[in-house]
Amino acid sequence: xxxxIIALATAAAYLAAAGHQLYYAPKHRGASSxxxxxxxxxxxxxxxxxxxxxxxxxxxxxxxxxxxxSLAFLxxxxxxxxxxxxxxxxxxxxxxxxxxALTVLASAIAPSDMQASPLAPGVVIHIACSLSANALLAxxxxxxxxxxxxxxxxxxxxNLGVTRWLPPLQKMERLLFELLWIGFVVLSLAIMSGFVFxxxxxxxxxxxxxxxxxSAWLVYASLLWGHHQxxxxxxxxxxxxxxxxxxxxxxxxxxxxxxxxxxx
Length: 264
Fold this sequence. Notes:
Helix content: over 70%
Mean pLDDT: 81
Largest sheet: none
Radius of gyration: 19 Å
Distance between the termini: 28 Å
Number of domains: 2
Number of helices: 8
């Protein structure tokens, strides 16, 4: 019952932060709301408290699909909150926080029944790199969606809705590629640590995960090369960023969903 109360409070704080920022931003040219920042900080703190309490009680057991989703959103929120100090990510949080609230409620209402299985330090490093890469690339995919929307409305001369209070397109694109570069480096570390610390990267039950992850890496590498050498921007960059993140989702969450919910 205590876990459910904390989950409800966390979800309420997330929704309050997103709702107030959505209300506040159009009237203040996209600026951050103090109430939204405070509610978001409270939500992240409660989220971390509840989730890491679950992890501690399960002695680093393999994460189920729901718990992995909740942890991924928590890391994404933490990264976004830290970057918000120096970069305009307020609009991304409006979409990110409601999804986080959903995963928090799902993990409290229908938690996975996982058996405790302590993990080696090298495996923990690999998991940390993988989830961090997921967080950064998730932010990049959301930013890519905003860049594509902004570019389309500027081309059609219909600067309506959310794009009216976004930063200039050039600044939005620069933020997108900053997120892509950092996420690409961390994804590279995740792949390398997997081959170093895991013994079954090409085993039958995880081969598809490895293939999807390396495919995503190749998409991001092509995108960053094309931006540097060919000047790819806006629509092309946004499309490839979304394709790359779709492969990342298939690699990690797709395999967990199939193994835990379909095959089991």
